[in-house]
TrEMBL record, chain A:
<dbReference type="GO" id="GO:0006412">
    <property type="term" value="P:translation"/>
</dbReference>
<feature type="region of interest" description="Disordered">
    <location>
        <begin position="41"/>
        <end position="60"/>
    </location>
</feature>
<dbReference type="InterPro" id="IPR014721">
    <property type="entry name" value="Ribsml_uS5_D2-typ_fold_subgr"/>
</dbReference>
<keyword id="KW-0689">Ribosomal protein</keyword>
<keyword id="KW-0809">Transit peptide</keyword>
<keyword id="KW-0496">Mitochondrion</keyword>
<keyword id="KW-0687">Ribonucleoprotein</keyword>
<dbReference type="InterPro" id="IPR000754">
    <property type="entry name" value="Ribosomal_uS9"/>
</dbReference>
<comment type="similarity">
    <text>Belongs to the universal ribosomal protein uS9 family.</text>
</comment>
UniProtKB/TrEMBL annotation, chain B:
<keyword id="KW-0689">Ribosomal protein</keyword>
<dbReference type="Pfam" id="PF00177">
    <property type="entry name" value="Ribosomal_S7"/>
</dbReference>
<dbReference type="GO" id="GO:0005840">
    <property type="term" value="C:ribosome"/>
</dbReference>
<keyword id="KW-0687">Ribonucleoprotein</keyword>
<dbReference type="InterPro" id="IPR023798">
    <property type="entry name" value="Ribosomal_uS7_dom"/>
</dbReference>
<dbReference type="InterPro" id="IPR000235">
    <property type="entry name" value="Ribosomal_uS7"/>
</dbReference>
<feature type="domain" description="Small ribosomal subunit protein uS7">
    <location>
        <begin position="79"/>
        <end position="221"/>
    </location>
</feature>
<protein>
    <recommendedName>
        <fullName>Small ribosomal subunit protein uS7 domain-containing protein</fullName>
    </recommendedName>
</protein>
<dbReference type="GO" id="GO:1990904">
    <property type="term" value="C:ribonucleoprotein complex"/>
</dbReference>
Length: 401, 228
């Protein structure tokens, strides 16, 4: 016991000794020296075993301003959240009573349907009234990132976004390790291109919003681009299979698109003839198509034949799904179409017809239709005119005066 | 020790970032589609191939096929480009009509030639108007262009090689311009048909324009080093 104690007292003393040397003759330092000695004396006599306590306890008394501010903030936030949760609970019970349901077992789904029923709204989804648990509404906040003395825990604290830079840092480090490993193998002439590679085709990188949730930090699109490029480089390394677990953390699994598309079953009319319906839109035009099986290739558009469209390109567009699936002359088509623009109408019919035809073809052909972009809606619209400009992109003629 | 390592690595991260910042440029012409969407596969031979296990097309949504791509006889990029360049005031219908009539005329002219010629010469006459159209563009494409470069207060016309895209545009523009330079009584599609056939045979106004440009480039070749 004696030897370590002696060693410790000397180490504890050293800063004070240095202090005295520098400020010899200063009244304050004398006092501090006295205090230090008293502390050490009392410490060695009374506490004995707990060697580290004197200085750390002295520091603990002196909480940093940053910590104080944080504690105040945290307390305020806690109180706020508590009041919000209480309000939410009361609101929920009130809503349950209005709806005549059991207030103790009122679920979030029931809340949503109740609000949709009581406050019907045609606004966009974000703007509609809602009632959610405060934890979902208010963003989660980080716990204290520094100790009582105000010293940060994380080495990247002063970057402002330590968690984000930690990810980049780790990815870059891992990439370097892989490169070093590769060169080592090459120098020893043991390197062969690995047969098994990291497969990440079925997933995608976390989006900006997801990454913000993971890091609990505010990020910009540029940050996200950096994140993707750094991780992309790591994933593209031939030896990246070793870092699979790390990479998978930042990948999001994707669903197979072909699984999403399940062809609806054929309908039957009073004569027992099978048919299928489809709906399509393009710009402001809307089309409703009915396709009958065992047909002879009859086409009826708004009670006219294909000559409803005077332009050849429109006719070609309307008939394209049929030529693509090789169903030309095998089915009958009836179309109701409305809205401005002949090309837009033709486009709407094309989408509607394709959707209806999926029920008549086999799975590989349906997949081909999807790959050719026949089953997706064309979301392109006219770009708006900008103020101070001639049009969407065109500027006014420049005049000197 | 660990702190030092962290510091050096920190610097390395910033180095990586600075390298990545420079190529990121915000796009002026953005797309209406979410960037997650992929371009549709139009080519029929490409569609017949089975998809690979990790093909992104399996997992990502596809953009809708564009209206000009839904053509029964197959989509031709150059044909659409030519129609668009010829278009005035967004009147695509007229532009398309002119092009189709022009192809019809070419077919007629070539068939007349075919029937007038003797048996042994017939195999050399091209009857497909689209082949003539493509041949005409290929023949008209210039290799070089002149760009104005200022050196020491003097403007020099410096010959510079052209990209394929640029030269194709130039060739189409010349053909359309020379077809428009006609008297009021002849129709555009008649003139364009003659122009295309001539260009396919390496004669005509647009070919002359190409040769003139090449001649100018030749005479200015002393300035070629001003490019750098």
């Amino acid at each position: 016991m004696a030897a370590p104690m002696q060693k410790l007292s000397s180490t504890l003393f050293s800063p004070f000794v240095r202090y005295i040397r520098i400020h010899e003759g200063d009244a304050r330092c004398k006092i501090s020296l006295k205090n230090a000695i008293r502390h050490l004396a009392s410490d060695s006599s009374s506490e004995g075993g707990k060697e580290t306590s004197p200085i750390s306890s002295r520091k603990a008394e002196k909480i940093s301003k940053a910590m104080k501010a944080y504690l105040e903030r945290a307390q305020k936030h806690d109180e706020f959240m508590k009041s919000q949760v209480a309000e939410f609970e009361i609101g929920k019970r009130h809503l349950a009573n209005i709806m005549g349901a059991d207030p103790d077992h009122f679920t979030q789904d029931e809340i949503d349907t109740a609000i949709e029923y009581l406050l019907p709204s045609g606004l966009s989804k974000q703007s509609r009234p809602s009632l959610k648990h405060p934890e979902e509404v208010f963003p989660t906040k980080k716990a204290a990132q520094f100790d009582v003395t105000g010293r940060p825990y994380h080495p990247f604290f002063y970057t402002g976004r330590p968690n984000f830079y930690q990810i980049l840092h780790e990815a870059a480090l891992k990439n370097d390790n892989l490169v070093a490993e590769e060169t080592r193998l090459r120098l020893n002439k043991q390197y062969t291109l690995p047969t098994e590679k990291l497969q990440i085709g079925g997933s995608r990188w976390l989006t900006l919003a997801d990454l913000e949730k993971v890091t609990i930090e505010k990020l910009t699109p540029l940050d996200h681009k950096r994140f993707v490029s750094v991780l992309e480089r790591l994933a593209s390394h031939p030896l990246s299979l070793a870092e699979k677990e790390f990479i998978q953390q930042y990948r999001q699994e994707l669903k197979q698109q072909s699984m999403l598309l399940e062809p609806p079953k054929l309908l039957q009319d009073t004569d027992g003839r099978h048919y299928q319906e489809g709906e399509g839109t393009r710009k402001h035009a809307r089309a409703f198509v009915r396709v009958w099986e065992k047909g002879t290739g009859k086409v009826k558009i708004n009670d006219q034949d294909l000559l409803y469209f005077s332009e050849l390109s429109c006719r070609e567009q309307v008939m394209f799904p049929l030529t693509f699936t090789e169903m030309l002359g095998l089915v009958d088509i009836e179309v109701e179409v409305g809205g401005p623009g002949t090309q837009a109408q033709a486009g709407a019919i094309r989408t509607a017809l394709s959707k209806a035809l999926v029920s008549f073809v086999d799975q590989p052909m349906a997949e081909k239709m999807r790959l050719a972009g026949l089953l997706s809606r064309d979301v392109r619209r006219k770009e708006r005119k900008k103020p101070g400009q001639e049009g969407a992109r065109a500027k006014f003629t420049w005049k000197k005066r | 020790m660990a702190g030092k390592a962290a510091l050096t690595n920190c610097c390395r991260i910033f180095h990586v970032n600075t390298r990545n910042i420079s190529p990121i440029v915000t796009q002026v012409r953005w797309s209406q589609y979410n960037p997650h969407y992929l371009e549709p596969t139009i080519d029929k031979t490409e569609l017949k191939k089975p998809l690979e296990e990790q093909d992104p097309r399996r997992f990502q949504p596809i953009k809708a096929i564009r209206s000009e791509q839904t053509v029964a006889l197959g989509y031709d990029f150059q044909r659409e480009k030519f129609i668009n360049i010829m278009m005035k005031q967004g009147n695509k219908r007229l532009s398309r009509e002119i092009f189709e009539k022009c192809l019809e005329n070419i077919k007629r002219i070539q068939l007349q030639k075919y029937h007038k010629s003797e048996e042994n010469e017939r195999s050399s006459i091209e009857l497909n108007p689209m082949n003539i159209f493509h041949q005409a563009i290929e023949n008209c494409r210039p290799l070089l262009k002149l760009t104005r470069i200022n050196k020491g207060g003097v403007a020099y016309q410096v010959p510079v090689p052209m990209t394929e895209k640029n030269s194709t545009f130039r060739a189409m523009k010349w053909m359309i311009e020379s077809a428009k330079a006609k008297d009021a009584n002849t129709r555009m599609y008649d003139q364009l048909a003659h122009e295309l056939i001539n260009a396919a045979n390496n004669t005509g106004k647009s070919i002359k324009k190409k040769q003139e440009l090449h001649k100018q480039c030749e005479s200015n070749k002393a300035y070629a080093h001003f490019r750098w």
